[in-house]
């Protein structure tokens, strides 16, 4: 019986190796553009989910476990191991889903991650909401909340994704018609198991994002400008949002578009757009080439 199991495992491994070589031959030069699309999509997802977290931060809905990180492919186990997992599946508890914001204290609420798990990865750090109101409320025009993050996701086989707020995080201000959202700076740095930096992407608003509505059922981003900078690739893209519309069942917008132009790098001067196709899903198009991507931290509620 054991011998048969070993034979099956070897056959599966050889099949996986064959698959990998075959797939590698078909990837070609699309890999680079697809990675650019993924980084732009993840940055947009981070901004939308952070906006949602800030708008909901003074309510009980802030306790919902949605909006956790998606483990980057580079931090997961090698592809051949994941494919073999179909033969020998392993189960990992997702304990980070139970992490909730603390009650209001000294005008702040904090969500702490203490080596909790996301699949096979672990998460450490925190997200803090700091309010202008001592009651942690966003009820009156002029009320302000600033969101800062400092956490690290570490893969089972090494490597890490670090998220920080070097530019002061994100600030949400209540207005007469909704909110004004300014991103002073957020940064995502992915380091591989060997210690090499795989990407370093930052976001900031060059013009405040204007939002109408007051809850997930009616939030709409109607204007503003979001700059996404890929430091290693040497380019940035400034996206202008148009009618990014939330649904009550998602912590991100589920429809609408963002459009802009790439500045610097090999894609300098090329057009770029993000079209939201559902909760956590989008088509990113760069110079006419489209990729369907999954947006980081955007999940159904």
Outline the secondary-structure elements:
Elements: H1 2-27, H2 30-55, H3 79-84, E1 108-118, E2 121-131, E3 144-154, E4 160-174, E5 178-191, E6 197-212, E7 220-230, E8 235-246, E9 253-263, E10 271-278, E11 281-286, E12 289-294
Antiparallel strand pairs: 1-2, 2-3, 3-4, 4-5, 5-6, 6-7, 7-8, 8-9, 9-10, 10-11, 11-12
What does this structure look like?
The chain contains 3 helices and 12 strands; from the N terminus they run H-H-H-E-E-E-E-E-E-E-E-E-E-E-E. It has helices at residues 2-27, 30-55, 79-84, and strands spanning 108-118, 121-131, 144-154, 160-174, 178-191, 197-212, 220-230, 235-246, 253-263, 271-278, 281-286, 289-294. Strand 10 and strand 11 form a beta hairpin. The protein is globular, with a radius of gyration of 20 Å. By secondary structure, it is of the alpha+beta class. The longest helix is centred in the N-terminal third of the chain and has 26 residues, at 2-27. Strands 1-2-3-4-5-6-7-8-9-10-11-12 form a 12-stranded antiparallel sheet, with helices on one face. The protein has one domain (2-80, 93-294).
